[in-house]
Amino acid sequence: MTKRLLSLALIAIMAAMLIPASAEWTMYVYTDNGKSLNVRRDPMTGDNVIGSLKYGEAVSVRMTMANGWTVINWASGDGFVAYVQSRFLMEYKPAPKTPSTPAPEKKSSTPGSNTTFSAMNDEFKTAVRVSPYTVTARPARASGWVNLRWAPSLDAAVITTCPQGKELTVLAELKNWYQVEDVVTGMIGFISRSYVMRK
Q1: What's the pTM?
Q2: Are 170 and 135 spatial neighbours (Cβ–Cβ below 8 Å)?
Q3: How far apart are CA 126 and CA 177, in angstroms?
Q4: Which tens digit of pLDDT belongs to each residue from 20-36?
Q5: Cα separation, 153 vs 192, whole angstroms
Q6: How far apart are CA 153 and CA 159, in angstroms?
Q7: How far apart are CA 137 and CA 197, in angstroms?
Q8: What are the b/e assignments for 55-81, b being 16+ CB within 10 Å?
Q9: E-assigned strands of the chain?
Q10: Is 174 in contact with 157 (CB distance < 8 Å)?
């Protein structure tokens, strides 16, 4: 581990310890495949796994970090905090994972193609900033989820997944997408208008 990474880890741990207990909240593990979530010693992937959390298990969260990691209480081993990837946590206990999985989204073009970027630009041109309001995720199936993407395109990478009923704040409206914020994690991305419902 480099000195810089060690410093960042120490700063994160110190910041987490300064947060009063009342600032902690509970979240639950939600993985796409229903498997366990790795708990890590440092906020990075690699050879630093110190344990795991089962799908649906409750987690005591101290803080979420801008780099996509969350600081959790972890009394096992030699430390009192540990790290998990924020995208695998949700606000309420998920339904048990069923063997079936949602059908993959249809893609209109090859990622990185000129057609993809052209369509994305056309979508961005329709963006209108609005007074924030709340919508909830509405997957095609109640046991499914809706993808939150980094850009308004089915070819854009998925930032996280939103289960049925997940609340999001709309920041901007596009022709086929909403730009939304997850107020719990602070993540901002784009979600298809077809799979959300205004509260």
Answers
A1: 0.46
A2: yes
A3: 10
A4: 444 788 889 988 788 89
A5: 9
A6: 12
A7: 7
A8: bbeebebbbbbeeebbbbebeeeeeeb
A9: 25-29, 37-40, 49-53, 58-64, 69-73, 81-85, 89-90, 128-137, 145-149, 158-163, 167-173, 177-181, 188-192, 196-198
A10: no
